[in-house]
Amino acid sequence: MQDSTMTKNESMNTAIDESVSITHENEAFKGIVGESPKMQEIFRLVERIADSDSTILINGETGTGKGMIAHAIHKQSYRKDQPFVSINCGAIPENLLESELFGHIKGAFTGATANKVGKFEAANGGTIFLDEIGDMSHDLQVKILKVLEERKFEPVGGCRTIKVDVRIIAATHRDLEEEVQKGNFREDLFYRLYVIPIKLPALRERMSDIPHFVSHFISQLNLEKRTDVTQITAQALDALMRHSWPGNVRELANLMERLVVIKGQGQLEIDDLPPKMREQIPTNSFTAPEISGDGICLNTAVSEFEKRLIYQSLEKTKWVKNKAAKLLHVKRTTLVEKIKRYELQQCA
């Protein structure tokens, strides 16, 4: 009996390990977690478009990983050995942004004591990532449009035209079509950018990835912070799954760092979570799995939670697998495989 239990647990652990490493099969996606169908679709799209020089516009809420996807596109492309230059257009004052993008010559303005190479020139041959392009002023939008159309520009205060060969990837958390209607964003620039759009889902739209994020962050933080956190209880994980995550993956990453550093070692429990998250748990929430004196590994806890979540979805839909799969945002074939793996059966 003990042997069969061990075999079953090992198979669960292997299944979780394999699902976490899906993106790791491609070196370009290293560090990006995503087993959910929405993220898998994005990974496939990135593989198809990376080697083209088409302009890409990434849209997603703050904290969804727009910069990581942009970097993955670059690493997958034929430009991967050339520079990847990133600039946050919303974080730099407007009077300095033009100089940051296009450079300047000595004496162009007060404080310009030497020539400066801009981001576009620094990215020559590679990729430039214009983050939060929706926050850019109309004057700069005109200059970006010119670079997109002609692949050339003049530094601030200069008259020499510089030609560049760059792949442009832009990103924004704003709805640019709406901004165009409001008159805040140039329509011609929008259509120049909107060649290949990528829409990143919010974390609340890919909740099935949360257990894998948790596992990833615990392993990563243990290495970086020299901690020894081994696992998270099913009850604590359930609380994380119930949170709405307005700050998306960045919010989850920051929370996990706080939890792991403060805990130091052992397992993360429901009492380790912020009071706001503990208060969200209903009285009938999942209880933590029973832990023996030897403990259990993180993957086992994640597997146990997944098993219970699948069973709950099946009960809720009266075991109609198509409906249960929709509730869990997974394919029906994926759900059927997991039902077989966990040997789930409908009660008589």
UniProtKB/TrEMBL annotation:
Q: Which GO terms describe its biological process?
A: regulation of DNA-templated transcription
Matching entries from PROSITE patterns are given as: SIGMA54_INTERACT_1, SIGMA54_INTERACT_2, SIGMA54_INTERACT_3, SIGMA54_INTERACT_4
Listed GO MF terms:
ATP binding; sequence-specific DNA binding
Q: Start and end of every Sigma-54 factor interaction domain?
A: 32-261
Keywords, ordered alphabetically: ATP-binding, DNA-binding, Nucleotide-binding, Transcription, Transcription regulation
Q: Which Gene3D superfamilies match?
A: 1.10.8.60, Homeodomain-like, P-loop containing nucleotide triphosphate hydrolases
The record's listing under InterPro entries reads:
AAA+_ATPase (IPR003593), AAA_lid_NorR (IPR058031), Homeodomain-like_sf (IPR009057), HTH_Fis (IPR002197), P-loop_NTPase (IPR027417), Sigma_54_int (IPR002078), Sigma_54_int_dom_ATP-bd_1 (IPR025662), Sigma_54_int_dom_ATP-bd_2 (IPR025943)
The protein here is known as: Sigma-54 factor interaction domain-containing protein
